[in-house]
Amino acid sequence: MDSSSEPIVFFGTGPVAARSLRMLAESFEIEAVVTKPRPEHHHGDVPVLTTAAELELPVVEVLNKKDVSDKITEAKFKSRVAVLIDFGIIVEQKAIDAFPLGIVNSHFSLLPQWRGADPITFSILSGQSKTGVSLMLLVEAMDEGPLLAVGECDLTPEITTPELTSQLIGLSYALLKDTLPKYLSGRLAGTSQEKVASVVGYSAEPTYSRKLTKEDGVLDWSKPAEQLEREVRAFAEWPKSRCVLGGHAVIVTKARAESGEGTPGEIWKHDKSLGVYCAKGILMLDMVKPAGKGEMSTASFLNGYGKDL
User: Fold this and answer.
1) Domain ranges of the chain
2) Rounded Cα distance, 215 and 218, in Å
């Protein structure tokens, strides 16, 4: 382990946090891991708890923001700074102030773009060509704190949320590895998001993401095909893009937008190709997953279900 000379406390709960924690443990001494407990009656994986156990790290389990404040102030950690990634609980100023240098939140967008709960998905949905990671000093207001560093990442035309997430986890780790020692030594201070945006050359106008719902995954043919193609990539992990074709419920796992005019929702079929007319263009379905079946090509789907279309 090539650890920095000072310990840090890690806040995180979800799978992105677990992968980040494993990387950070290679370069930093982790004094403690603050995370949600295993939900009652939950028998599946609990990513951060599992990772912390494997790395033999002390764990502080918290249920809500009051619990965070109470347990963090009681703990009296020696760490001067904490790192927060994919935590899922609001952190009050009382807990932030328990660390002399505060809490550094690694947020997966170029702030002030896509403040909120799901910046990765909304970066893809928006059709933008670039996103990144922002290291922000946590404040109680939502994602409005000053920035310590930003790193950019190009969005390729076919990238999916899982692929982009992996890239941003790696970028986040590289930024933290480089930035935290500078911040701890007093060589770096926070800068307002607006000033950073103006220097780097992207919009200082805030945009906001939100938590997705299962209904977001229903393909709406009254939208343009180009937008639906982005949804298929953005919702690849959850909630997944769903529709009904010839009476069969399917998940669309790969698609592309092509030109064409027709009644929205009407099926377009030719040889071994399948698409659906949208408000503008045709959403060509390249890979689908019928209910109860594995993922298959459109040609295979047409062989089995084409008679119903």
Assistant:
1) 7-200, 214-308
2) 6
